[in-house]
From TrEMBL, chain A:
This is NitT/TauT family transport system ATP-binding protein. Pfam families: ABC_tran (PF00005). Residues 263-274 have a biased composition (Pro residues). Signal peptide: none annotated. Residues 5-238 form the ABC transporter domain. Keywords: ATP-binding, Nucleotide-binding, Transport. Residues 253-274 are annotated as: Disordered. It comes from the Bacteria. PROSITE patterns: ABC_TRANSPORTER_1, ABC_TRANSPORTER_2. SMART domains: AAA.
UniProtKB/TrEMBL annotation, chain B:
It comes from the Bacteria. Belongs to the binding-protein-dependent transport system permease family. This is ABC-type nitrate/sulfonate/bicarbonate transport system permease component. Keywords: Cell membrane, Membrane, Transmembrane, Transmembrane helix, Transport. It is a multi-pass membrane protein. Residues 64-248 form the ABC transmembrane type-1 domain. The chain crosses the membrane at residues 68-90, 105-124, 190-214, 226-244. Coiled coil: none annotated.
Length: 274, 265
């Protein structure tokens, strides 16, 4: 299957106040169409910088990002981003339904089709009853569901998620993880999921990319060979889950200690697509 | 007691709370007027009778109405100007750095001193009075709009960019709406400034208006009439402020809800 997302030699250097900080240093990876890939790394490792470059919200210092072969220089029309700060990424003055509908309106989707997409997306995230509410009338987990509904209603080819569940409680987080797996399986969208939570990365992904400490490189790239049907109880109790988690954990610890990946990573094992 | 009776009692208590202080102040005025017997301090009942005589006549059309029209025209013009310039300046750091010293200077100039200048430039007709009101009202609106536009949440701005929301939709749904609490605060300040400047502009070369009429009464020693004009100005200010509150409540409904939600109800 062809790569829908290609990141080649991506570097981002911040300069200012006489200081020069290399946040992302020479990053290469590709994501095949339809894959759910998780990026995990030590905190402060430049994950958000990387994601912003991929989303076209920030220009890399060098290197390139390609979406379906086209270079990304500005936010592309077939990509959606779900941010960590759900409370700040929703329009407090618009109703839930209007929040979901706004990008579609701007995209020029006809009214009837728009209404249908909004209705379906809200049903998909279990918020059909909240269409008329304002975001601040909902709990944190429900607000993040609104942001997810807005992203899937947009019908993107690639869905980027920047630590989307870092700010919700553990139970809500488990529910949202299952929601994302369910949506991904049903919609066939490519998902790039950034997280600092190792368990979450292994539980969600078909593949986990472990990032090094800043300047970020790919430290390890492993396929998650767990069954496609996963649930919070049996999957997390699975021996294979524990092994994978241990491996990712060891790599993240190595990254924290500052160990660098091998200078020439001999073609990382391309995980089998779904 | 029936539910209807309870509601009536609540309404009665509320009316009592609202009216108690004004009633007390009028009583105090009464006592002061009765004990002083000064010519310049008529009793409230005399002022009330004069008020009806003076203002329930064609004078309300000849003097009060032009004042209100000038006030609203000046306020509206200042609002459009302040929000438009404020949005432009708030959106561009370069423009802000460029304009800041000049804005600070003009803001520091008290608007009443512009009256003689504006008489020379714009004559003594309505245009001058509206310009005086605009020149004072525009600053709180402009400066608050700049602050509001600067404070647009970066995450929400990124959200707009990633969904390719730009141009007029971005201005209307992101910039102006997220700045609306500050813009409304600026408009509220501007409204009280507008009333003051309306009166002042009419005290200079003028032939109609509330400010003009009050000064006329004072010069003619029509003291109860003068007092009735002051009362009318007070009532006008009160009415405008209540109307503004209504508008604000509907525009900023989301903001009050959001604040209540973040405070934990």
């Amino acid at each position: 299957m062809s790569a829908v997302l290609e990141v080649t030699g991506l570097r981002k250097v911040y300069e200012g106040g006489g200081r020069r900080v290399e946040a992302v240093g020479g990053l290469d990876f590709t994501v095949p169409a339809g894959q759910l890939a998780c990026l995990v790394g030590p905190s402060g490792c430049g994950k958000t910088t990387l994601l912003k470059c991929v989303a076209g919200l920030m220009r890399p210092t060098s290197g390139s990002v390609r979406l379906a072969g086209e270079p990304v220089t500005e936010p592309p029309p077939d990509m959606a981003v779900v941010f960590q700060e759900y409370g700040r990424s929703l329009f407090a003055w618009l109703s839930v339904a209007d929040n979901v509908a706004l990008p579609l309106k701007e995209k020029g989707v006809p009214r009837a089709r728009r209404a249908e997409l909004v209705r379906r997306a809200l049903a998909d995230v279990g918020l059909s009853d909240a269409a008329g509410a304002h975001p601040w009338q909902l709990s944190g987990g429900m607000q993040q569901r609104v942001a997810i509904a807005r992203a899937i209603a947009y019908e993107p080819r690639v869905l980027l998620m920047d630590e989307p569940f870092a700010a919700v409680d553990a139970q809500t987080r488990a529910e949202l993880e299952d929601l994302i797996r369910g949506l991904w399986q049903r919609l066939g969208v490519t998902v790039l999921f950034v997280t600092h939570d190792i368990d979450e990365a292994v539980y969600l992904g078909q593949r986990v990319l472990v990032l090094s400490a800043s300047p970020t490189r790919v430290q390890d790239d492993l396929a998650v060979d767990l069954p496609d049907r996963r649930d919070q109880l049996t999957t997390r109790g699975d021996v294979r889950f524990t092994e994978l988690r241990a491996r990712v954990y060891a790599r993240v610890q190595a990254a924290k200690r500052g160990e660098r990946p091998a200078p020439d990573p001999s073609a990382p094992p391309a995980p089998a697509p779904r | 007691m029936s539910r209807g009776g309870g509601a009536a009692a609540r309404l009665g208590r509320r009316a009592l709370r609202v009216c108690a202080l004004p009633a007390g102040l009028v009583a105090l005025w009464w006592a002061a007027a009765a004990s002083s017997r000064s010519y310049y301090l008529p009793a409230p009942d005399a002022v009330a009778v004069t008020f009806a005589e003076v203002w329930f006549s064609e004078r309300i059309l000849a003097d009060a109405l032009p004042s209100v029209v000038r006030l609203l025209a000046g306020f509206a013009l200042a609002a459009v100007l302040g929000v438009a310039l404020g949005t432009a300046i708030g959106s561009s750091p370069r423009l802000r750095a460029f304009t800041e010293p000049v804005l600070e200077f003009w803001r520091a100039v008290p608007p009443p001193v512009l009256v003689p200048l504006l008489i020379l430039l714009a004559g003594i007709d309505d245009a001058m009075k509206v310009l005086v009101i605009v020149s004072g009202c525009v600053w709180p609106i402009l400066l608050n709009t700049v602050e509001g536009v600067r404070a647009v949440d970066p995450v929400l701005a990124d959200t707009c960019r990633s969904y390719r929301i730009s141009g007029f939709t971005r201005l209307r749904t992101l910039v102006l709406r997220s700045a609306s609490p500050q813009i409304m605060a600026g408009l509220r300040q501007a409204l009280s400034i507008a009333i003051i400047l309306m009166v002042i502009s009419e005290m200079f070369a003028s032939s109609s208006g509330l400010g003009f009429t009050i000064v006329q009464f004072q010069r003619g020693f029509a003291i109860p009439e003068m007092w009735s004009g002051i009362v009318l100005l007070g009532l006008l200010g009160l009415a405008l402020s209540l109307a503004f509150q209504r508008v604000e409540r509907s525009v900023l409904d989301w903001y009050h809800g959001l604040r209540a939600a973040t405070r934990g109800e």
